[in-house]
Design a protein that fits this description.
52% of the residues lie in helices and 10% in strands. The chain starts with 6 loop residues before the first helix and ends in a 5-residue tail after the last helix. The radius of gyration is 17 Å and the shape is globular. Helix 3 crosses helix 5. Strand 2 and strand 3 form a beta hairpin. Strands 1-3-2-4 form a 4-stranded mixed sheet. The protein has 2 domains: 120 residues, no CATH class; 51 residues. The longest helix is centred in the middle third of the chain and has 19 residues. It has 8 helices and 4 strands. The chain is α+β, with helices and mostly antiparallel strands and 184 residues long.
């Protein structure tokens, strides 16, 4: 397997191998296609870890804290974040990462290049630009037809519905929509 410098590059490669690019993005299947083992590990709670990636006999292993990731969008983002570490930082080097609430926080990890890159990659993986545009346009069109109003859907309603479609948190969707300059 090669390293990937972007989530788009990874998704394009996986699509060429039969991965179905539809929402919500199946991050469990992506991990499987990358030959990465994913384990729910309750012992991570003891060390205040949300998730981590390590290597066991050359095989990448992602461990997810089930207590800190019981909210489905949180778990999906944690898994995407660890996949990002694998693709960007540890595939060749076998560098291990242990992530806490602090390292997973966008504002807290801003100055840590590894964590900042992994957060950006995870957002792109879970919310690819082409699907955001496609689903956003369909959502607005169906809303307009259904409600026959000229002013359209409110920004907060749009964010909520998009977050629900992509199975991400509202704050992750806001960040992604802002980074794509869809909202300000």
């Amino acid at each position: 397997m090669k390293e990937y410098s972007s989530a788009t590059q990874l998704l394009n490669n996986l699509a060429s191998k039969g991965f179905d690019l539809q929402i919500p993005i199946n991050v469990e299947h992506i991990a499987s296609m990358l030959d990465v083992l994913v384990i729910d590990d309750p012992h991570l709670e003891e060390i205040d870890s949300i998730g981590e990636i390590s290597f066991c006999e050359e095989k990448a292993v992602i461990r997810i804290n089930p207590f800190q990731n019981s909210y489905k969008p949180r778990r999906r983002f944690t898994l995407a974040h660890e996949i990002a570490h694998y693709c960007l930082h540890s595939h060749s080097s076998r560098k291990e990462f242990k992530d806490s609430r602090k390292t997973m926080s966008r504002s807290e990890s801003y100055w840590d290049i590894y964590e900042s890159e992994a957060n950006g990659f995870a957002a792109q993986l879970l919310m690819p630009r082409e699907l955001i545009v496609k689903e956003g346009n369909e959502l607005i069109l169906s809303y307009t037809k259904l409600h026959s109003v000229s002013d359209g859907m409110s920004k907060s309603e749009f964010i909520e519905q998009m977050a629900s479609l992509f199975e991400v948190s509202n704050s992750a969707m806001v960040y992604r929509l802002k980074s794509l300059k869809i909202i300000s």
